[in-house]
């Protein structure tokens, strides 16, 4: 080998040694971060504090911006241009649609306490600090949540190093691909929020429409068809609630909805009467389709159609749908 | 090995107390005789008690393993021919690229910018019903979930 070859080899060795040193230092710093504790603090922070933030969310559908107003457990998301907004407060969500002047009302029951949900999350997912970052000018820990089970969604969180607010998230589908990301571009923790921001629209012109209504599963008896919980669920999921979903198709039928969570991902199992007015594929084997935020599977059994929605691999989706008696 | 895999999949359910019957017997009998699975349970207990130190082994970024598995399974995977001749210039190029890659990972972390194709069945009431519930979970991406409902204004009700 000539002199130039030796110089090149020496350069590579130096580069590898320098990079190795940096990586070792970085890994040592990250290893000192208690990721589980950070996740707990971020989950607690979700129901605390106040801020105004400009947020961008990106999916393959494109990017959307929104302004988020957060005060305690109340959060309002305003979408620009159309003046539509959504607000969640005290277990209810309101979505105002200005064009048709409707206020969609939805109740989400939660059988799990915040503590139970956090324990369930950490039982099903490994939290690991994988880096440090800077979002909206604020320093953040980057935490990866990876499932202890195979073929499950994963998530990365950028958690503010000072107040544990979640500044950025990346969601990975069960197939391991990046599904979307949401990031604060600007955030102000000191801005005063006008209390009228959280006022619901009043007056005769606004039509409240109940979409989703929390109820006990015993109340499903009045729906006119047999409702039964699925006999199969993927490992790690617990029942978190039951609801009546009021159809928006115009025929006025009501579906039963069971909701399950593993602390991060959620599954909805809908059972709906088989009616001619609604789009019904009439399949006796589960047919699934990917709808971006989740996979939707549908199977028809006797007098009802079962629809399962969640970020699941098709095999699990089918098993859940077909396990409903 | 298969039994270990099955039991480890059931550990979170076991610790949450929702196992019964045959599955409970399976887990308990296996834990009594398998040190590896008993150890996995202890790790889980440590996490649940929130007193654990950080996991010592190096773990890949979220979603990486499933992505790799998918690429391996993909029929479109192709291989590039290796360098045939050792030339100093190429060596220096490889060295520079290695250095740039390592520094890139160190400085910014590997970012995945491709996004799964979204085929939104926007008129589907079940997707809406799911989004309304899922959007209220503590770590949910509410801006994205609830925009699905808000963007359905053009749909007839």
Question: Would you kindly provide a written description of the structure presented here, covering whatever features stand out?
Answer:
The complex is a heterodimer of chains A (about 325) and B (about 160). Chain A has about 325 residues and is an alpha+beta fold. Chain A folds into two domains: about 150 residues, Clam (outer membrane lipoprotein receptor (LolB), chain A), CATH 2.50.20; about 110 residues, Phosphorylase Kinase, domain 1. Chain A is about 20% helix and about 45% strand. Chain A has four helices and 18 strands. Chain A has an 18-stranded mixed sheet, with helices on both faces. In chain A, a hairpin with a 2-residue loop joins strand 4 and strand 5. Chain A is globular, with a radius of gyration of 24 Å. The N and C termini of chain A lie far apart (about 75 Å). Among the domains of chain B are: about 45 residues, no CATH class; about 30 residues, no CATH class. In chain B, about 60% of the residues lie in helices and about 0% in strands. Chain B has seven helices and no strands. Chain B is flat, with a radius of gyration of 24 Å. About 30% of the residues of chain B have low confidence. Chains A and B meet through helix 1, helix 2, strand 1, strand 2 and strand 4 of A and helix 1, helix 3, helix 4, helix 5 and helix 6 of B.
């Amino acid at each position: 080998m000539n002199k130039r070859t030796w110089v090149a080899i020496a350069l590579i060795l130096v580069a590898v040694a320098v990079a190795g040193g940096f990586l070792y230092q970085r890994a040592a710093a990250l290893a000192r971060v208690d990721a589980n504790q950070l996740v707990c603090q971020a989950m607690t922070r979700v129901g605390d504090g106040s801020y105004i933030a400009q947020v961008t969310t990106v999916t393959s559908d494109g990017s959307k911006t929104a302004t988020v107003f957060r005060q305690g457990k109340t959060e309002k998301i305003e979408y620009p241009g159309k003046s539509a907004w959504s607000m969640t407060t005290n277990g209810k969500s309101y979505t105002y649609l200005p064009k048709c002047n409707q206020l969609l009302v939805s109740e989400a029951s939660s059988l799990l306490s915040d503590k139970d949900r956090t324990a369930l999350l950490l039982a099903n997912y490994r939290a690991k600090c994988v880096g440090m970052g800077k979002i909206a000018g604020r320093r953040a820990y980057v935490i990866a949540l990876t499932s202890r089970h195979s073929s499950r969604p994963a998530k990365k969180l950028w958690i503010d190093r000072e107040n544990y607010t979640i500044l950025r998230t990346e969601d990975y589908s069960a197939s391991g691909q990046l599904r979307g990301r949401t990031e604060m571009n600007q955030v102000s923790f000191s801005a005063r929020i006008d209390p009228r921001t959280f006022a619901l629209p009043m007056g005769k012109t606004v039509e409240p429409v109940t979409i989703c209504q929390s109820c006990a599963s015993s109340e499903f008896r009045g729906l006119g068809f047999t409702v039964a919980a699925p006999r199969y669920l993927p490992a790690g999921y617990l029942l978190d609630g039951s609801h009546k979903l009021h159809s928006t198709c115009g025929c006025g039928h009501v579906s039963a909805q069971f909701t399950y969570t593993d602390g991060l991902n959620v599954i909805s199992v809908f059972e709906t009467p088989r009616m001619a007015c609604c789009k019904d594929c009439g399949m006796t084997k589960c047919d699934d389709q990917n709808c971006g935020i989740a996979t939707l599977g549908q199977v028809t059994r006797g007098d009802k159609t079962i629809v399962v929605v969640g970020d699941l691999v098709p095999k699990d989706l089918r098993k859940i749908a077909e396990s409903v008696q | 090995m298969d039994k270990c895999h099955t039991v480890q999949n059931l550990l979170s359910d076991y610790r949450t107390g929702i196992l019964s019957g045959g599955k409970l017997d399976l887990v308990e009998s296996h834990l009594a005789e398998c040190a590896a699975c008993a150890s996995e349970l202890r790790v889980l207990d440590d996490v649940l008690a929130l007193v654990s130190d950080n996991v010592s082994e190096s773990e890949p970024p979220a979603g990486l393993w499933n992505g790799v598995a998918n690429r391996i399974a993909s029929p479109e995977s192709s291989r590039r021919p290796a360098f045939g001749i050792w030339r100093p210039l190429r060596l220096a190029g490889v060295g520079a690229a290695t250095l740039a890659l390592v520094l890139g990972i160190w400085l910014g972390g590997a970012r995945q910018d491709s996004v799964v194709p979204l085929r939104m069945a926007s008129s589907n009431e079940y997707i809406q019903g799911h989004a309304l519930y899922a959007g209220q979970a503590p770590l949910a991406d509410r801006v994205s979930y609830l925009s699905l409902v808000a963007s359905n204004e053009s749909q007839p009700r």
